[in-house]
Amino acid sequence: MLAMFVGFNASAQTMPDVKLENQEGKTISTLDVVDGTPMIISFWSTTCKPCIMELNAINDSLYEWLDVANFKVVAVSVDDSRTISRARAMTQGQGWDDFECLYDKNQDFKRAMNVSLTPHTFIVDGEGNIVYSHSGYTPGSEQELFDKIMELQ
Amino acid sequence: MKKFLLILGVALAATFVTESAYAQVKVGKGQLSGSLESNNIYYDKDNIMQESGFMKRPDKVFGSHDYLKLDYTLGRFSAGIQIDGYLPPMYGFDIYSLKKKANRIDGSSMLTGFFTKYVQWEDTNWGVRLGDIYDQFGNGLIFRTYEDRALGFNNAIAGARVHYNLNNYFTIKALAGMPRYYDKRNTNWVWGADLSLSLSDIVGWNNGLVAIEGSYVGRHQNDVLAYAEYRGITGLDSKTLNMVSGRLNFEVAGFTLRGEYVTKLNNDVDMNEGVHEGRKGNAIHIDLGYSYKRFSASATFRRQENMNTLLMLGGQGGCNVINYIPVLTRQHTYLLTNLNPYQPTSTGGEIGGQIDLYYSLRNKSNRTKYWNFHANFSTFQNLDYVEYPGAPVSEGKKTWLEINVDAERQWNRKIKTTFLYAYQEYDKSHGLGAPQYLKSHIFVADMTYKFNKKHSLHVEAQYLADFDNKQGDWVALLAEYNFAPKFSFYVSDMWNCEKAELNFANQKNYLIHYYQVGASFTHGRTRIQLSYGRNREGVVCSGGVCRPQPAYTGVNLALTTSF
Question: How many structural domains comprise chain A?
Fold first, then answer.
């Protein structure tokens, strides 16, 4: 009986509609981010060292990748009220000005995406379908993200 | 051990299931998603640790905290459950001490758990949620319910929440419910409302943001008067505690100001345990930020007096709280910088703040060469307090001071280094009685070398110098080898090089190596981490909240997966 209702489908999960803050402190919906461009969505926090390493590694290779692929990077900070001002300062101080930075202060987006541990990175296509995700970071694993982005081109 | 094998089996099965992880799980017209997290410790005997008195012989062999979360979404409708299992609770978590206490009385099992659930409708400008609610008003000084698994923390309130917003001009939110208290639902009611007015949107000013916000929160406990009488506390005259807060947010041209003031309108139990008289509380929190190109600065000031708001008078532990007053100092990621982390005083109030400065120096033509600089300063002191009932008022004093600077250098594609220096003054007495400062100078060198696209080596050397000879010098070393994107192996060791770890009972000094060896395996969304090692007694901090961690030696196995 259950099998009639539950089935794996070839189509991908879609991004949930959750409210969070942008760099200017305004409330936006996660669906506002979906604009036809494929994207890397990376969940990070100021106290998560591998998260920062991963975003820096993506930032290092960004222009090289953008030469051959069309995509954007969305960095979602899950810092709460304690460290959110530090997170805002860090995005500037780490030179992440090419990223779209969002702030998930109440962790609603993190919960909706079922993220248990950061870093957790998703590849989402231009229509908002989640096509790949990876948790944890080891130097070099950013290459896998780029390979997945290339598959979407 | 059987359980370990079972978990490994689940992990392997999960790995294969998540092979097709990016495919949708369809249930009717909606989609199902979920996650599983399982943290397990197998406690081992440790002769040196037991002989030295730093560790008690474990009275159990196993602890396991497991979380299964399932969500179903159909358009704007969503529903979900989360099952938390403490099978049984681990040492160092409040749930362990509570179950242990209960066990002595009724001999019931240590195994326990809790179920949270919700249904929700999110429309474009309004939404309603029934069931367990995670939310916060402002900085959380007045109200915050959240989950933090590293602390075993969850104070979700079960009830209802509605919110409505009009063209970004104003947003109103109201909620009411009963908070979770460890593995039970508390019977106290908590309710509140939050209003936000965006003045910049109302007048059509697009160059910045000006918003005025305010909240009201109430807590109702039926037996407050009986509790006050039992404890001999005077001045607790209301079953309902009312609190209000006002906030101002202002942002223009890289400059940010966020301020919040919160106050209790009724007397609440005094957090300063020497006082047996009800008292109001208040707090002020100010955040300032400035950024210009690759330079940014942020500063936080906070003064709080009796503002910690318990979920239940007479309750205990870190989960017995409905608001959020975290430690504002820098949360470090290195072993020795976390040896003596700041913990707030238990004297009912503190004042202090912190400053962060960031600067990135980048080569325009070559993105793989840059410097990132960071400096941080923080200091706190407790407010005047009463040490014990009837004692004279003691003057508040410095409980913490820290200055740290770090420089991160990406030399080229292969080499990256980080150097950190920190000076910390930590008061062992936590603000009670005469100060006992531990002054530490901490040096860290950290290097990552990438051999090629997949192989890399990460090493850390850390030294803590103690010129006052109160804690002895410490050394920590770490090496990690990564095979991206799946495997990572590490070994680390930390020891006091002057054998200054003294056992007061036998007056003997011991040289103890706190070593760890571990490996992790990641496949897409599934991650398994296995480690073995000796853990020093200390505190585990997450999100500015800490819990004590007793010493233990053992195997840790952690699994996370999602679909």
Answer: 1
Residue ranges per structural domain of chain B: 2-326+485-562
- Chains A, B: CB pairs < 8 Å: 219
Torsion of Cα atoms, B365 then B367 then B368 then B372, to 10°: 120
Chain A residue numbers with beta carbons less than 8 Å from the beta carbon of B370 are 95
CATH (domain of A142): 3.40.30.10
In this complex, is the C-beta atom of A98 within 8 Å of any C-beta atom belonging to chain B?
no
CA-to-CA distance for B307 and B456, rounded, in angstroms?
Answer: 48
Assigned CATH for B2-326+485-562: 2.40.160
Mean pLDDT over B119-142 rounds to 95
Q: Please answer yes or no on whether A114 and B26 come within 8 Å at the CB atom.
A: no
Instruction: Round to whole Å and give the CA distance between A5 and B74.
Output: 14
B545 to chain A, closest Cα gap in Å = 10
pLDDT at B2 (0 to 100): 53
Rounded to an integer, the average pLDDT of B530-555 is: 85
Domain membership of residue A75 as a residue range: 15-151
Q: Does some domain include residue A99?
A: yes
Question: Phi/psi zone of residue B92: left (φ > 0), alpha (ψ -120 to 50 degrees), beta?
Answer: left
Q: Please check whether residue A106 touches B, CB under 8 A.
A: yes
CA geometry: angle B536, B541, B545, nearest 5 deg: 140
Is A86 part of a structural domain of the chain?
yes
Q: By the 8 A CB rule, do B439 and B465 touch?
A: no
Residues B420 and B446: their CA atoms lie apart, in Å, by 8
Lowest mean pLDDT among A60-64, B243-247, B516-520: A60-64
Residue A88 near residue A23 (C-beta atoms within 8 A): yes
Joined tokens for residue B375: 């400096």
- Specify the residue for token string 């901090």: B541
Q: Does A12 touch chain B (CB under 8 A)?
A: yes
DSSP assignment of B29-81 equals TEEEEEEEEEEEEEE---HHHHHHTSSPPPS-SEEEEEEEEEEEEETTEEEEE
- Residue of A83, A147, A149, A151 best to disrupt the B interface, most CBs of B under 10 A: A83
**Angstroms from A119 CA to nearest CA on chain B:** 11
Q: pLDDT tens digit string along B341-397?
A: 998 877 889 999 999 999 999 888 888 889 999 999 999 999 999 888 888 888 999
Per-residue model confidence as pLDDT tens digits over B71-105:
999 989 999 999 999 999 998 899 998 888 887 77
ipTM of the complex: 0.88
CB atoms within 10 A of CB B286: 16
> Do residues B319 and B155 touch, judged by C-beta distance below 8 A?
yes
Residue predicted with more confidence, B119 or A13? B119
Taking the C-alpha atoms of residue B116 and residue B150, their distance in angstroms, rounded to an integer, is 18
Distance from the Cα of A28 to chain B's closest Cα (Å) equals: 10
By DSSP bridging, strand A72-77 and strand A39-44 are parallel
Answer yes or no: are the C-beta atoms of B418 and B408 closer than 8 Å.
Answer: yes
The pLDDT tens digits for B261-301 are 999 999 999 888 778 889 999 999 999 999 988 899 999 99
Residues 6+ apart with CB under 8 A from B107: none
Cβ(B550)–Cβ(B56) below 8 Å: yes
Q: Would you say residue A23 lies in a domain?
A: yes
For chain A, count helices (H), then strands (E).
Answer: 5, 8
Q: Is residue A7 part of a domain?
A: no
Distance from CA of A9 to the nearest CA of B (A): 5
The Cα-based distances of B107 to B63, B89, B90, B99 in angstroms read: 18, 15, 18, 10
